[in-house]
Every structure is written in structure tokens, then in C-alpha cells.
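Worked example 2:
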Amino acid sequence: MSHFNQIANTWDTPEKIKLNQQYAEGIKKHLTKKDAIKILEVGCGTGLLGSQFVHGASQLTGVDTSPGMLEVFNQKFYDNKNVHSRLLNLEEQEFDEDGFDLIISSMAFHHLKEPAKMILKLKKLLSPDGILAIIDLDAEDGSFHPDPKQMGVHHFGFAKETIQSWSSAAQFKKSSREIINVIKKEQGEYPVFLAVFFN
């Protein structure tokens, strides 16, 4: 994760902040419980997405594998006693807490080796009526990242059928998927989805 350590201090651009406000609004539409919710952000980075929920949270825990990103995360929330971070690789290590009303993850799942297994693991961390919300790339041709291997990319996005298979395997009550953004680059346009899983 040295790539993310190197770019951590310049990660929060006005464009990314605005985009995460949009992502958060998309997630909030699915929440039945709005206040005093316990939140886990997986692959939290600098907390761009989590920061959009912090005012309604009884607890926000950010988990990431990059010390550099978590350093920025901790600076951002240093005066908020309800916010914590954990340097943890959830694919390889167990998480010792559960009962989360909302688990969120943005643009992290394509970095996972086995995302389907992560879905099963995260379901166990949810409260009985909790919600898992994942934002990531729709299936693409591998051109989104300039150097996928060096950037730790294991999947070129995820198709709609893949999301449905995750939901079925984890036995969620229901799930939904919508395109929430399109990232435009010189080499093409890349749709971004919001998938929501209901426990």
C-alpha cells in the first residue's frame, strides 16, 4: 500500500469532497435509522465518505491498511471522541467488534483479493437491520488505473450479476444497485455504482 501512503497528503481535493457528498446522499436515501448510528468505513482512506455521516453517528470507525491515509484521517477527526481508526487488513485479520448499523466502503473493493468473502465477513458485523453500502467501479476493461498491479488492483470493476451473487451468497434480505456517477478520463468513461445490501 506504499502507493496510498505516498499520495495521502494530497488525496482530499475539492472534486473528491464534492463527489463523496453526492455518494453519501445516495446512501442516506436507504437509511431508515438516521441518528446515533454506529458506522464502520472499510478502506476509509482519509475518511472522505465517513466524514459525511459523522454528525449523525454515535460512533465512526475507519479501517484501512495504509498508515499514511490513517494519519490524515486521524488529523481530520482529532477532536471528535466518537471517531476512531484501526490499521487493519480485514481480508487477513478478524475484527473484534460488531453491531454496526451502517458499513460503508468507497472504491476499495477492487483492491480486495476476494471481495465475495469480505461481503460474508461484513454481514456478520452488521446489526440485525443494518445496511452495507458499497461504491465501486462498474465492470471495465482494465484501463481505469494507469498501472493496476502497482496500485494494488485485483478486479476491473464488478458487473451487476456479481453484486447479485454476493447478495444471494450472504443471504441478505434484499439488495439494490444503481449507477451513481460516471468518471470521465482521457481513455474513456467509467460508471460507478452504489450497491446497498439490507440485513
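The helical segments are 2-7, 14-28, 67-76, 115-125, 160-170. The mean pLDDT is 93.
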